[in-house]
Design a protein that fits this description.
The protein is of the alpha/beta class and 295 residues long. It has one domain (4-285): Aldolase class I (TIM Barrel, Alpha-Beta Barrel). The chain contains ten helices and six strands; from the N terminus they run αβαβαβαβαααββααα. Helix 1 (4-29) crosses helix 10. The chain starts with a helix and ends in a 5-residue tail after the last helix.
């Protein structure tokens, strides 16, 4: 095996299946609510639905763990892939979501996939996570806003997403699926470190506490939170305050919807650049190890 991408996945799956096995007792104890790990398709497939479907199937088969999710970007082609894969019974972590619109599109695709499974007489307990990015909103918007609005937009967006999530769980469409064994597609907050030195290093974590949500946290931020953090204000099902904040941001000339789309495209490009750097490093190392005379 010399293909850099094949080598990356060989190593990644070895680590991730070991992690899935370590978390399996949690998965068992919570009836599949917690205890998951994720393996992502290459970022270059962010706008390739069929390529994402085919590789996700391979990764799911190779991992062979019920608590390992395949991570797919929530671009329009990515959501097409996600819907097909959920319909096939493959758990999906949808990443690179930014706006409330992105979340609603993801949730709708998940519901459609479960409804297809219900129509086919298949079990509905297929896990999924919707990963919404927080910090990147403020890194993009704050330079264009007065100090009074710094650090506010990302949290306003997550508040809207959480309200939409709660509303969906209270709807008749979801209740019908839940009665047949479906599990909620949980919301995950990503990109939750603090980059602005004017804010506490636990700024976002203390404001993202909400039942049945997930938070992915960098180690430095997690240790800081354990040392001196704590909940500051719990998220609410009502997003009136969030709408007011977004209106203030808009009044300063920021098109929030357009910014959300831009952040998703930028995120996909950044992930692809990082992936290319990784593959180049693996290729260079492989060439060195295979060179004549290397023991």
């Amino acid at each position: 095996m010399t293909d850099p991408q094949d080598l990356v996945y060989a190593v990644a799956l070895e680590d991730l299946t070991a992690a899935a096995d370590a978390f399996r007792p949690i998965w068992d104890a919570t009836a599949g609510a917690d205890g998951y790990v994720s393996v992502e398709v290459p970022p270059g497939l962010a706008y390739d639905a069929q390529g994402s479907i085919e590789l996700a199937r391979q990764l799911h088969h190779l991992a062979d763990r019920p608590n390992l999710l395949v991570k797919i970007p929530g671009t329009p082609p990515g959501l097409t892939a996600m819907e097909q894969l959920i319909a096939e019974g493959i758990g999906i972590n949808v990443t690179l979501l930014f706006s409330n619109t992105h979340y609603l599109q993801t949730a709708d695709a998940y519901l459609r996939a479960l409804e297809q499974r219900a129509a086919d007489g298949l079990p509905l307990g297929v896990p999924s996570v919707a990963s919404v990015f927080v910090l990147r909103w403020d890194k993009a918007a704050d330079p264009l806003l007065p100090a009074s609005l710094h650090g506010k937009l990302g949290l306003a967006i997550t508040q809207k997403v959480y309200a939409s999530y709660q509303s969906l769980l209270e709807g008749e469409r979801w209740k019908a699926l839940a009665q047949s064994g479906a599990r909620p597609q949980r919301v995950l907050w990503a990109s939750t470190s603090t980059s602005d030195p004017a804010f506490p290093d636990t700024y976002y974590l203390g404001r993202l506490a909400a039942p049945n949500t997930i938070d992915t946290v960098p180690e430095k931020t997690l240790l800081a939170f354990a040392d001196h953090g704590g909940p500051v204000e719990l998220m609410q099902s009502d997003y009136t305050a969030a709408e007011n904040c977004i209106a203030k941001v808009t009044s300063h000339g920021i098109d929030v919807d357009a910014l959300g789309e831009s952040l998703q495209r930028q995120g996909a490009r950044a992930f692809e650049a990082d992936w290319a750097t990784l593959l180049e490093a693996i290729s260079t190392k492989t060439t060195q190890l295979l060179a004549p005379g290397v023991p």
